[in-house]
Amino acid sequence: MSFNSSSLPDWLMPEGVSKTQWEYISNQYIAANYDSSLKDNPAFHQDLNFLEKHFNKAGIILDLGCGTGRVADFFAKKNFKVLGIDLSAPMLLQASKKQIKGPHLFLRANMLELSALSSNSVDYSSCLFSSFGMLLDEVHRTVMLNEIFRVLKPGGKFILHVHNLWSAAQGLKGYRWLVMDLCRRSGHSVNFGNKLLPTHQGIIGLTLHLFTWKEIETLLKKAHFKMIELLPLGNQSWKTCKSPGLGKKIFAHGFLIACHKL
């Protein structure tokens, strides 16, 4: 089967997925080189350390947007049971090739549609490396958070990674985009925060949602999550904290956020 943007007509496109995103997640070259291309990225290691701190007792982990199975590879050998969900068949193929020891399962599914999972059935959930920002509509982001809250057991923990809106302030084009985005926000546009990314491995038009701190704080609160701790990203000397100061709200590239189900 060929995995390309033309393999699905618009009316068959999964909920919350654009044609450009489908092209990205269906690209076999990107999947095959995913781990090697990011191995030197500090966040590729910071997120697993952050998860290990909060997923501190063996249990069931639901990893949304699991990609090549990094979370399963890290935790399954520690007696955690890991369920990885992703829409990308090439990414899941790479995950299946790893010699992962311990209980784990990979499923090809939409992280917006978790109806196959029972309520109060998992101990932990994670959504890392921009997966949440791939949801360009606030309605879809809200649906996903509500579904994660539903499947988590009471007191269950959720770790989320988001990119910071102000990280776009790089160069004239970046500042120009920020000004336009602030105008969209003041005009109550539904597309605020959605930034067109530079051409990525031949894919043109890939878009990512960038968050202000207030925006993600409000989304999590509406979904009834309580924040426990966060790690600002962008400077490896930064430590975990309960709430970012003004400087980190502006200069952090993104945030790893730990919260739990009330």
Count of individual domains: 1
Going by CATH, the architecture would be 3-Layer(aba) Sandwich
Secondary-structure element order, N to C: HHHHEHEHEEHEHEEHEHE
The strand order across the widest sheet is 3-2-1-4-5-9-8
CATH top-level class: Alpha Beta
Number of helices: 10
Profile the largest sheet.
Answer: 7 strands, mixed
Give the strand content: 15-25%
**Helix proportion of residues, in percent?**
25-40%
CATH superfamily: Vaccinia Virus protein VP39
Q: Can you walk through the features of this model?
A:
The protein has 262 residues and is α/β, with parallel strands linked by helices. It has a single domain (5-261), classed as 3-Layer(aba) Sandwich (Rossmann fold), CATH 3.40.50. It contains ten helices and nine strands. The protein has helices at residues 19-25, 28-32, 34-38, 43-54, 70-75, 89-97, 138-151, 171-186, 213-222, 246-251; strands at residues 60-64, 81-86, 104-108, 122-127, 152-163, 194-196, 207-209, 225-233, 254-261. The strands form two sheets. Strands 3-2-1-4-5-9-8 form a seven-stranded mixed β-sheet, sandwiched between helices. It has a two-stranded antiparallel ribbon with strand order 6-7. The longest helix is centred in the C-terminal third of the chain and has 16 residues, at 171-186. The chain starts with 18 loop residues before the first helix and ends with a strand.
